[in-house]
Amino acid sequence: MPTLTTVADWTITASGDTATFTHATGGYWAPRVWSGRGLAIAEADLPSFDKALGEVLKLPVYWLARARRADSGAGEAAVWSEPRYDGDDEFVYVAGPCRTEDAPGYRPASTFVIDLVHLRGLRIRIAAYRVASGRG
């Protein structure tokens, strides 16, 4: 049975080995996903996204997925790039294993999927970015 968590504008459904993130905002401020390559989150949404990641890491479904993964390096930050802020569009971009419908380039996507084992690494990258940029 899926586990549902809600934080601010985010709803996260975790089931099996994946977490599906749904953002309440559509249009321009919706997250942007380049399937298999990365995602972009509006800088204003980073605090709530960081909190949502932290809430998922507390769930038993996360720890069960980690236990099923034989790779001891699962969850390391190295699978994600350092976040990069683009002041022209006010989004923070991070390359890594995020999925949505296949489409070339970054596309608005109110829903995207990340393997549970990769959430810890993404949270590390986002938290470090927020601290380094003075937004954490």
Mean pLDDT: 90
What would the principal axes of the Cα set say about the shape?
globular
Side-by-side strand order of the widest sheet? 1-2-3-10-8
N/C terminus separation: 34 Å
Major sheet details: 5 strands, antiparallel
Q: Which stretches of 5+ consecutive residues score pLDDT under 50?
A: none
Q: Which secondary-structure class do the elements indicate?
A: alpha+beta
- Helical content (DSSP H or I, runs of 4+): 25-40%
Order of helices and strands: EEEEEHHEEEEEH
Topology record:
Elements lengths: L2 E5 L2 E6 L2 E6 L8 E3 L3 E5 L3 H12 L2 H9 L15 E3 L4 E5 L2 E2 L7 E2 L2 E5 L3 H14 L4
Antiparallel strand pairs: 1-2, 2-3, 3-10, 4-5, 4-9, 5-7, 6-7, 8-10
Quick overview of this protein structure:
The protein has three helices and ten strands, in the order E-E-E-E-E-H-H-E-E-E-E-E-H. By secondary structure, it is of the alpha+beta class.
